[in-house]
Write a structure and sequence with these properties.
Layout (H helix, E strand, L loop, with lengths): L9 H4 L9 E5 L4 H12 L3 E6 L2 H7 L1 H7 L3 E5 L5 H14 L5 E4 L17 H17 L8 E5 L23 H23 L5 E6 L13 H11 L15 H4 L1 H9 L2 H4 L3 E3 L2 E2 L18 H15 L4
Parallel strand pairs: 1-2, 1-4, 2-3, 4-5, 5-6, 6-7
Antiparallel strand pairs: 7-8
Helix pairs in contact: 5-6, 6-7, 7-12
Length: 315
């Protein structure tokens, strides 16, 4: 197996990988990592269904993909902040009945001012985790043996655990980074438990940290909050690749595609990946690695149960 790292790009990790005959679902294809993920998959032969809240914006953002890969990209409407929209999208996909070999839960928001989704969830938890939780579980029957789910988490999971007692900030003061951290931890825990539930049937799941990248995800952040995030994504000293600044978008999407289509399933299943490798556990806040609470199996089962309770569905 080739070795990849911080500087690897999407096309590098997919070099020599033929995805012809494979179908992929990618959420968040109106900008940034979602567009690049869809482009790389389609360029290597996959048929891609791109999901986005704003279809007009997604159509413009993916125009070059359609021109290059004509019949290999289609779009569906999906507003992760509305469970009605999520369920409608899932029902349409299930009704169509075509399988998905890859499901990439890419869409998300970060460090937003306090707001609630259409269903009353804290916006970051509702959009980043609960919307994907319902979508993926509702289409899980379409994932055949050998399929993979990749859930985008973040080094931001170190900002906070998924609070099962007060997930929607109904009692504690709202903090945008704590809320982002909780949502990203929930993403990682979702991958852990989904993998446990489905691996016997040959379907695996992994969480990934794409790295520090400037995309539309940062639109709610101030210069100070960006500096806070950079303190996590860049080392304090030393000339390493990670110390050179932000990743490009193709570098940022590389770990997603490495975990989805290049790395052995047994290597990444139930794990948290970064810089195109499986991350090591870390007990303290650091620029690399994953906190144990984001991979704890019992915590993942409890987070799944809490998520079911919140969305009013059991899977």
């Amino acid at each position: 197996m080739k070795t990849f790292g911080w500087e690897s790009t999407t096309d590098e990790v997919l070099e020599g990988v033929d995805l012809a005959g494979k179908r992929a679902l990618v959420t968040g294809v109106s900008a940034g990592l979602g567009v690049e993920t869809a482009r790389a998959l389609a360029a290597h032969g996959a048929e891609v269904v791109g999901a986005a809240r704003d279809l007009a914006k997604a159509a413009v953002a993916t125009e070059a993909i359609r021109e290059a890969c004509s019949d290999r990209l289609s779009l569906i409407e999906l507003d992760l902040a509305s469970l009605a929209s999520v369920r409608a999208a899932a029902e349409a996909l299930v009704a169509e009945g075509r399988p998905f070999d890859l499901v990439i839960a890419n869409a998300g928001v970060m460090a937003t001012p306090f707001a609630r989704t259409a269903d009353g969830f804290e916006l970051q938890l509702g959009t980043n985790h609960l919307g994907h939780f319902v979508l993926v579980n509702r289409i899980a029957s379409l994932m055949p043996m050998g399929a993979r789910l990749v859930v985008l988490s973040s080094i931001g999971h170190q900002f906070g655990d998924f609070d099962l007692e007060d997930p929607n900030f109904e009692r504690k003061p709202y903090d945008s980074f704590a809320a982002y951290g909780a949502a990203k931890t929930a993403n990682a825990l979702f991958a852990v438990e989904f993998d446990r539930r489905h691996k016997a049937h040959g379907v695996r799941a992994a969480a990934v940290h794409p790295g520090g990248i400037i995309t539309e995800l940062a639109r709610h952040m101030t210069e100070e909050s960006i500096r806070q995030m950079m303190a996590l994504t860049r080392p304090q000293a030393g000339e390493t690749p990670r110390g050179r600044g932000f990743k490009t978008v193709p570098q940022g999407a590389a770990t997603t595609l490495w975990a989805a289509a290049t790395a052995p399933a047994e290597l990444v299943g139930g794990r948290y990946c970064e810089d195109c490798h499986v991350a090591e556990l870390t007990a303290t806040s650091t620029t690399q690695g994953v906190r144990p609470y984001a991979l704890d199996a019992a915590h993942a089962r409890a987070a799944w149960a809490k998520s079911e309770e919140l969305v009013g569905e059991r899977f």
